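In practice, a research group might receive sequence data for several interacting partners and want a quick structural hypothesis before committing to experiments. The following worked case mirrors that situation: the sequences arrive first, and a predicted assembly follows.
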Amino acid sequence: SQQGEEDPQALSIQEGENATMNCSYKTSINNLQWYRQNSGRGLVHLILIRSNEREKHSGRLRVTLDTSKKSSSLLITASRAADTASYFCATEDTGRRALTFGSGTRLQVQP
Amino acid sequence: DGGITQSPKYLFRKEGQNVTLSCEQNLNHDAMYWYRQDPGQGLRLIYYSQIVNDFQKGDIAEGYSVSREKKESFPLTVTSAQKNPTAFYLCASTSGTSLGETQYFGPGTRLLVL
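A structural hypothesis for the assembly, expressed as tokens:
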């Protein structure tokens, strides 16, 4: 099962613009994480937000979490061509010690 | 150089054949995971192991088997019962000591059916 559904499925922007991706999930969670995947590669961890946190920043990344709506957003500011990748949210459910991934957003940043 | 290695990078399976994908980590992590990724999709959990000699089924375990005889190794066998095995397989690990840990991923193995 895929816990998270991400929106949009694909996003194309110009360099310098901001990119916003959204993730919705279904069950109670301990935390929510965002990962990045370059084409044909493994995933790389970007940022984690715990269920008792509402917002977190890391460099050009800003993540929000609304547990009442079971949703999260990832904002990448001042995007660069090198940000082109797929981005996935993943939740660690209260019921098991494993992540459940969303379907991903494919981001294309045009130089 | 610490990390997770997966081999081979590409693997071809014939009809009715079992194949084994290798995953090794030198991060001294207790927990290891196997995921399947289909084109344009997210990752789905196949099996995971929190400790040596113990593992649990994930969401799509049918047609797969695993073993965890050593802390650093978590091989995945794709059996002939898996009728649609063509996918990208990713292995990951965490230290397993607490909630909210980063998963470290290997580079993946792409399995194709001949």
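Before designing any experiment, note the following. The interface with chain B takes residues 1-2, 4, 6, 30-31, 33, 35, 40-45, 48, 50, 88, 90, 92, 96-104, 106 of chain A (CB under 8 Å). The radius of gyration of chain A is 13 Å.
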